[in-house]
C-alpha cells in the first residue's frame, strides 16, 4: 500500500493526442487504471473499483492524482509563450525505478560517454562548479549555472557550443531542463521528462519539449529526442541497485552529483519512497 504522500502527487498517464475513443488501460503505482474521454471531451481516469481520480489536461498529456492532490499541477510558463513549438515526443517503457529515470535526466557527467558527439565528447568531460538548492518557497529542486560543451546541443544547432543549463524538479517523477536556445539567444529551450510509475521498477517516460525552432521538421525534432533517451535506456535498465538509494551512505557522490544528492534528500524529506531503497541491502 502506497502512502498518502505518494498517492497525492500528479502523474502523467496518457498522451492526449494519441488517446483514441477506445481509451487506454495502463497501471499507476502498481494498480490498474483506465484512461478515456468522458462527456464534452473531458479526460477521465478510473481506478479498478471505478473510482474517478482528479485529472488535468496540460502539456499535451493527461495527468491523474490517485489520492487527494497536495497542490495544483506545477506550472511551466513557457508552454503558453507565443512562438514556441510544443513537441509531444511519445512514450518509452523502461525497466527501471521511476526515480532512477528522473535522476539520470539530472546527470550531466554521462553526456560524453553515453551521448558521444551529440551532448558531449571527450576530452570535454569535466563538470564545472554549479549551484544547487531546494527552493523552500516552491518546494522544488533547482540546479543553475551549469555549463557544458556539446557537439550538437539541439537539432537546430549548427556546431559545437558551450551550453548553459538549468534543471528543475517540481514533482518527484518530473524533471524540467532549461537550456541554451541556439536560434534565439536570451531564451531557453525547455525539455521535460514526465515519468509514469507503473511499478517500483518499471515506468513509462513521456518526454515533452517547448522550443523556439521554426526550421526543423517535427519528425526530426521527435527523432532527435527519442535517440537521446534510447541511448539512456540501456544504462538505466542495467543500474544497480534497481531502486534509487536514499541513504547517503549507500553510494559515494562526486561534485558532479550535487543535483542528485539534493533530489534524494528532497524525496526523503517529502516521504516519497516509491521506487526508492531506504537502507543498504
From TrEMBL:
<dbReference type="InterPro" id="IPR044043">
    <property type="entry name" value="VanA_C_cat"/>
</dbReference>
<protein>
    <submittedName>
        <fullName>Aromatic ring-hydroxylating dioxygenase subunit alpha</fullName>
    </submittedName>
</protein>
<dbReference type="Pfam" id="PF19112">
    <property type="entry name" value="VanA_C"/>
</dbReference>
<keyword id="KW-0223">Dioxygenase</keyword>
<dbReference type="InterPro" id="IPR050584">
    <property type="entry name" value="Cholesterol_7-desaturase"/>
</dbReference>
<keyword id="KW-0560">Oxidoreductase</keyword>
<feature type="domain" description="Vanillate O-demethylase oxygenase-like C-terminal catalytic">
    <location>
        <begin position="94"/>
        <end position="269"/>
    </location>
</feature>
<dbReference type="GO" id="GO:0051213">
    <property type="term" value="F:dioxygenase activity"/>
</dbReference>
Amino acid at each position: 500500500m502506497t502512502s498518502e504522500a505518494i498517492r497525492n502527487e500528479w502523474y502523467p498517464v496518457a498522451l492526449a493526442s494519441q488517446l483514441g475513443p477506445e481509451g487506454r488501460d495502463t497501471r499507476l503505482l502498481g494498480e490498474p487504471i483506465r484512461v478515456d474521454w468522458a462527456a464534452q471531451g473531458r479526460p477521465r481516469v478510473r481506478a479498478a473499483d471505478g473510482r474517478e481520480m482528479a485529472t488535468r489536461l496540460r502539456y499535451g498529456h493527461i495527468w491523474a492524482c490517485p489520492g487527494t492532490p497536495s497542490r495544483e499541477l506545477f506550472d511551466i510558463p513557457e508552454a503558453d509563450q507565443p512562438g514556441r513549438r510544443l513537441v509531444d515526443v511519445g512514450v518509452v517503457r523502461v525497466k527501471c525505478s521511476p526515480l532512477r529515470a528522473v535522476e539520470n535526466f539530472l546527470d550531466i557527467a554521462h553526456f560524453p560517454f553515453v551521448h558521444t558527439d551529440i551532448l558531449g565528447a571527450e576530452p570535454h568531460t569535466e563538470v564545472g562548479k554549479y549551484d544547487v538548492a531546494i527552493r523552500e518557497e516552491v518546494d522544488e529542486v533547482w540546479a543553475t549555472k551549469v555549463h557544458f560543451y556539446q557537439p550538437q546541443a539541439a537539432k537546430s544547432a549548427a556546431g559545437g557550443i558551450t551550453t548553459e543549463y538549468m534543471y528543475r524538479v517540481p514533482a518527484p517523477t518530473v524533471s524540467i531542463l532549461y537550456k541554451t536556445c541556439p536560434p534565439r539567444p536570451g531564451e531557453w529551450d525547455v525539455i521535460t521528462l514526465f515519468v509514469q510509475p507503473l511499478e517500483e521498477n518499471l515506468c513509462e517516460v513521456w518526454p515533452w519539449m517547448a522550443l523556439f525552432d521554426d526550421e526543423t521538421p517535427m519528425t526530426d525534432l521527435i527523432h532527435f529526442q527519442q535517440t537521446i533517451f534510447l541511448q539512456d535506456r540501456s544504462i538505466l535498465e542495467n543500474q544497480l541497485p534497481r531502486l534509487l538509494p536514499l541513504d547517503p551512505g549507500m553510494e559515494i557522490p562526486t561534485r558532479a552529483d550535487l543535483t542528485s544528492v539534493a533530489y534524494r534528500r528532497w524525496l526523503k524529506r517529502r516521504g516519497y519512497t516509491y521506487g526508492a531503497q531506504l537502507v543498504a541491502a
